[in-house]
Amino acid sequence: MKPTIVLVHGAFADAASWGPVTRVLLDEGYDVLVPPVFNRSLSGDAEYLRRFVEQLDRPVILAGHSYGGAVITVAGVAENVVGLVYVSGYALDEGESLGQLQGGFPDSDLAANLVYTPYTLPDGTDGTDVSVQIDAFPAVFAAGVDPKTAEVLAVSQRPLSAIAFGETASVAAWKTKPAWGIVSVADHTINPDVERFGYQRAGLRTVVELDAPHLVMQTHPAEVAKVITDAIAELG
């Protein structure tokens, strides 16, 4: 039985960011699901995804973009997950946060273009949402994407709670599950060396480097889909 492909979006995006890849995979006959990630906390997002996956009751391969890479790192320990694909993503180690992994490398263009907005948590305490400055979004986050599409993505982005940057991964699924990765060489959101370092440390089976921006799923959908389907073929 071919595994179901579950595509996991990252921060400042939603499930629609996977649209072009989803279309390719559906046209090739794969079973695909693209659940929401709420971007409230790494532990909460990973727990939601893990439960979502476990309820499918069939083999699953997880593909995570950007922050979604951190989410699949934790959620990927679900028993029915058979593989992980990191797409311009964070391959965290157990006990490591996004901030710690990024801290070892020069900042990308993203850091200078973030907006911090307070909001109230369910328990009444204060939280902070982080988003990308709308005017900077096309160049920093959606470079290479059709300008009109980038404008829509900019005003419909899903913020990431600031606590997610400092929260550490409770587990690292790549230690027990086979994994593959894509580096976006022209990434202005995550330093490509952050991606390379995480993938090398995790011992990924294959790493493909694409001359692509952070939203590689929008600009290179066929290539991204091929990495996923090649991983499925390798799993047998």
Automatic annotation (TrEMBL):
The organism's place on the tree of life at top rank: Bacteria
UniProt cross-references to InterPro entries, sorted A to Z: AB_hydrolase_1, AB_hydrolase_fold, Sec-Metab_Biosynth_Hydrolase
GO molecular function, one term: hydrolase activity
Sequence ranges assigned to domain AB hydrolase-1 in this UniProt record: 5-226
Pfam families per UniProt: Abhydrolase_6
Segment forming the signal sequence: none
Alphabetic keyword roster: Hydrolase
The keyword RNA-binding belongs to this UniProt entry's keyword annotation: no
Name this protein carries in UniProt: Alpha/beta fold hydrolase
Lineage: Bacteria, Bacillati, Actinomycetota, Actinomycetes, Micrococcales
